[in-house]
Amino acid sequence: MQLNRVKSLEIVFERPRSNRKQTIPPPAVPGICRVEHVKVLGVTISRKFSVSSHVDELLAKCSQSLFALRTLRQHGLPPDALHAVFQAVVINKLIYASPAWYNFTSAADRGRLDSFLRRSARLGYRDVQSPSFDSLCKTADEHLFLKIIKNKHHLGLLHSLLPPQREQHYKLRDQVHNFLLPARTASAIDSSFIMLMLYINSGCAS
Q: Which of 18, 134, 157, 198 has a C-alpha 20 to 30 A away from that of 80?
């Protein structure tokens, strides 16, 4: 198979909050454009593992959906139906692939997402008692993690990323998993889905 250089991009990831004063990237691959951001399966991530650009795109698209909801309300759609449309169109768009990107958001990113949902509730498109965005993402994380540990063939290679299971010679209280906990090394790795869920469900999250 021959690589199509015109359609290929190169990105050099850099460890966030690195103590190094200056990072010298490796030489660029001839004929391939080097970029600062890359979109993979609908998720945009920067070379420093920032997802602020992804949040920008999400909020821009969801803001356009609010205009459509306003039009539906003007045509007589009742509040309950508006909430259902908001859940199907906006919330599902926001939480798409959230296990892959939400843990890399900054406090500012999360503040913007929460602000958008609060504004949507004030406008009547969402129930004010609905779960926060953080709660929605944590629920999505838990559902995906349980599927991974219970099904070795779920989503291809995800189960293979789990560490070995610890040997137990006596019965302990019920736990979500009994995998060994890998050593924590870098913030980018610690924020990855598998690492984070292993620690959260062991009661050792920091």
A: 134
Give every CB contact of residue 27 below 8 A, 6+ residues apart in sequence.
none
Cβ(32)–Cβ(8) below 8 Å: yes
SS3 172: coil
How is the chain split into domains, by residue range?
52-136, 144-168+175-200
Q: What tens digit of pLDDT does each residue of 107-164 get?
A: 999 999 999 999 999 999 999 999 999 999 989 888 888 888 877 776 557 777 777 7
Burial of 197 (C-beta count, 10 Å sphere; 0-12/13-18/19+): buried
Helices (H), the chain: 52-74, 79-86, 92-94, 98-101, 107-122, 133-150, 187-190, 193-200
- Per residue in 32-89, pLDDT tens? 888 999 998 899 989 888 899 999 999 999 999 999 999 999 999 999 999 999 999 9
CA separation for the pair 159, 107 (Å, rounded) = 30
Please give the Cα distance from 15 to 94 (Å, whole number). Answer: 26
Q: Is the overall model pTM greater than 0.85, yes or no? A: no
Q: Among residues 65, 110, 71, which one has the least CA distance to residue 86?
A: 65
What secondary structure does DSSP assign to 117-149, as a single string?
A: HHHHHHTTSS-TTSPPHHHHHHHHHHHHHHHHH
